[in-house]
From TrEMBL:
This is DoxX family protein. The lineage of its organism: Bacteria, Pseudomonadati, Pseudomonadota, Alphaproteobacteria, Hyphomicrobiales. It is found in: Cell membrane. Keywords: Cell membrane, Membrane, Transmembrane, Transmembrane helix. It comes from the Bacteria. It is a multi-pass membrane protein. The chain crosses the membrane at residues 42-63, 70-88, 100-121. One of its GO terms (cellular component) is plasma membrane.
Length: 130
């Protein structure tokens, strides 16, 4: 069994699951779902912009549409979120609750470099080079 043959599928699974989890953060900020203690932020604020990027960027990541540029932008968003909102609280991600931001940052940076994997709209739109 050639384990490398599964690499594009594993990459796609990473992309889809990461996008779904990321969408949840945006949906909570913009739509109030799932319900939380924090009310939705004003749309024209940093948190509102973050919610738009998270919801719609997450949708594009799940679909595998414009994967590389969207993933690069989302990676940057998570780097900004970590350094602006989490790092000032503590030097330790476990204490400042920034571990998810760090993981999203590097998963999206990887997707920007590696592409969408199989099962993507990008793959259907771009002809394969053999």
């Amino acid at each position: 069994m050639n384990i490398e043959a599964w690499s594009p599928r594993a990459l796609a699974a990473l992309r889809i699951v990461s996008g779904l989890l990321f969408m949840e953060h945006g949906a909570q900020k913009l739509l109030g779902f799932p319900p939380s203690e924090n009310p939705g932020p004003p749309l024209f604020s940093l948190f509102g912009l973050g919610g738009v990027l998270e919801l719609f960027g997450g949708i594009l990541i799940v679909l595998g549409l414009f994967t590389r540029p969207v993933a690069f932008i989302l990676s940057g968003e998570m780097a900004v979120a970590y350094w602006m909102f989490h790092a000032p609280e503590s030097a330790f991600p476990i204490l400042n609750q920034g571990d998810a931001a760090i993981l999203f940052c590097f998963v999206f940076l990887y997707l920007a470099a590696a592409g969408p994997g199989s099962w993507s709209v990008d793959g259907k739109l771009t002809p394969r080079r053999d």
